[in-house]
Design a protein that fits this description.
It contains 21 helices and 12 strands. The longest helix has 27 residues, at 267-293. Strand 6 and strand 7 form a beta hairpin. The chain has one domain (3-148, 163-197, 276-472): TIM Barrel (Alpha-Beta Barrel), CATH 3.20.20.80. The chain has helices at 3-6, 15-21, 23-34, 48-51, 57-60, 106-116, 167-183, 199-204, 214-222, 227-245, 254-264, 267-293, 306-309, 311-316, 319-322, 335-350, 359-370, 380-383, 387-402, 428-440, 457-472, and strands at 8-13, 38-41, 44-45, 76-77, 120-127, 150-152, 158-162, 189-194, 298-303, 328-333, 409-413, 445-449.
Length: 473
């Protein structure tokens, strides 16, 4: 078997790519030019990044392939409707209404031609599937009943994301995964991405903490959480963060005020743990559904880059634990974009609990704790992170933490959408060095993302060059 076939080389794709470029010509080109042997298709989503064309075209123009069509895709399911699959949920009508997909099931369209070419096909499912700032979301989610399953914040207001503990929504996610796993012979598996802010995480970022719907309150109480005290504490924390960001003086400083609030309201942490563990339980449940339907199907985790850019999330989501419900992991390291992501991640903290401290010193300490040997805060957006330090260190750390339990496929960014003109631009050399860093650090594959629709083929050529270099060794 050739080195090309032994490597896992994945690519995240939109359903519309196959209509724009033709299934067989597109698959041939991806295999022959870039050694792609696995594709991850956004089968159910309202995110433009998963189902549409380039979302950053206003800033970056069109890529060097595909159709230059401004018509927005409305999102939803790009699979054939199967109402019987969704009897246990009120969320039933979500077939994508885009006219170009009338009568087309994207997996039925792609599976056979991909198999003929030795290309594995995965469904790419990302939660939340709805409005997601900066990811080209649909302006209107056409899913009747969605408003009835939303989170409730600490003030009793309906929030902007569905509640993972609402039976209708959780059953819907179960049904979506079962639909994929039961009805598509030849599907290799599912790549699942779970990107949700926890209650305390939301408060630290300035959003009202969640979720205090009747379902969350009942489940938390059953686990011994005093929901009333937790709600009071999280509201106090949220109000404190608002005051800190508004510049209200605190006699002992912002950080001490934060710690004092946490000390005075210990139920914040018990509720936080309840919510995070229910989130992990969802991942385990979906893994179990996939394996019940077909043990041969793979369940891979597409892991949020905030898990290694945020101290609190890194503590909450250890790699070795996640290996219990995954066949492989894909750490997201969209290197040219990561400086901006880190900057945006830490800005609310620097303006809140750390506002009295020198931001450069705080960030240097944070980078040391997180194992990031990257440029200073003021240079991050324009420079991005370096593949030879960032990608390699994250891969090496993940491989070590997993202790060989499951493979590591690094999520390499190729023209990940920029959100501001001064942000670093991806280059073929960045992609090339990221691929080489992955295999140097012990990774066994790569998955290029976040979306083929937004990639330039000339940028992805950097990967092809890296594979040639690896083959010459």
């Amino acid at each position: 078997m050739s080195a090309e076939r032994e490597r896992f080389v994945g690519l995240q794709m939109s359903p519309v790519n196959f209509l724009d470029e033709g299934v067989e010509p597109l698959l041939d080109m991806l295999r022959d030019r870039f050694a792609v042997n696995a594709i991850m298709i956004g089968t159910v989503s309202w995110l433009g990044l998963k189902v549409g064309r380039r979302v950053s075209r206003a800033l970056e123009g069109w890529p060097d392939h595909g159709h230059q069509d401004e018509t927005p895709l409305r999102g939803g399911s790009y699979l054939a409707p199967r109402p019987a699959q969704y009897e246990r949920t009120s969320l039933k009508q979500f077939r994508a209404p885009d006219e170009v997909f009338a009568g087309i099931d994207v997996l039925d369209l792609v599976l056979a031609p991909a198999a003929e070419r030795g290309i594995r096909v995965y469904a790419d499912l990302m939660e939340p599937m709805f409005n997601y700032l900066g990811h080209g979301s649909s302006q209107r989610v056409e899913l009747p009943g969605l408003a009835q399953v939303m989170q409730v914040d600490c003030l009793g207001r309906i929030a902007a994301e569905p509640c993972l503990n609402h039976p209708d929504y959780r059953n819907w996610l179960w049904s979506v995964v079962e639909d994929h796993a039961s009805n598509y012979a030849g599907l290799a598996g599912i790549m699942w991405c779970n990107e949700r802010r926890s209650p305390l995480d939301a408060a630290l970022a300035g959003s009202a903490p969640h979720c205090f719907c009747s379902h969350c309150e009942r489940l938390a109480a059953a686990e011994g959480v005093d929901v009333g005290r937790a709600r009071t504490g999280l509201e106090a924390m949220w109000r404190l963060i608002g005051e800190l960001r508004a510049g209200v003086a605190k006699v002992d400083g912002a950080l001490i005020a934060f710690l004092r609030t946490l000390y005075a309201h210990p139920d914040i942490l018990t509720f936080e743990r309840f919510w995070v563990e229910r989130n992990k339980a969802l991942d385990r449940e979906l893994y179990g559904i996939v394996k019940f339907c077909d043990r041969r199907l793979e369940f891979g985790l597409n892991v949020w880059n905030r898990n290694h850019l945020n101290l609190w999330r890194k503590a909450q989501w250890p790699w070795r634990e996640q290996a219990q419900w995954a066949d492989w992991v894909k750490p997201i390291v969209y290197q040219h974009q990561s400086g901006g992501i880190f900057f945006d991640e830490w800005s609310p903290l620097l303006g809140g609990v750390f506002r009295d401290l020198d931001p450069e010193l705080v960030v240097e300490l944070a980078k040391a704790v997180l194992g990031l040997d990257e440029v200073a805060l003021g240079e991050m957006i324009a420079t991005g992170f370096d593949p030879d330090t960032y990608v390699e260190s994250q891969c090496r750390e993940t491989v070590a933490a997993l202790e060989g339990a499951i493979p590591v496929y690094m999520g390499i960014g190729v023209d990940a959408p920029r959100s501001r003109p001064e942000q670093a631009v991806c280059t073929p050399d960045i992609v090339r060095r990221s691929v080489l860093a992955t295999f140097r650090a012990g990774g066994t594959g790569v998955i290029f993302g976040p979306a083929y629709s937004g990639m330039n083929l000339t940028t992805l050529d950097g990967a092809a060059e890296a594979f040639r270099e690896l083959d010459r060794v």
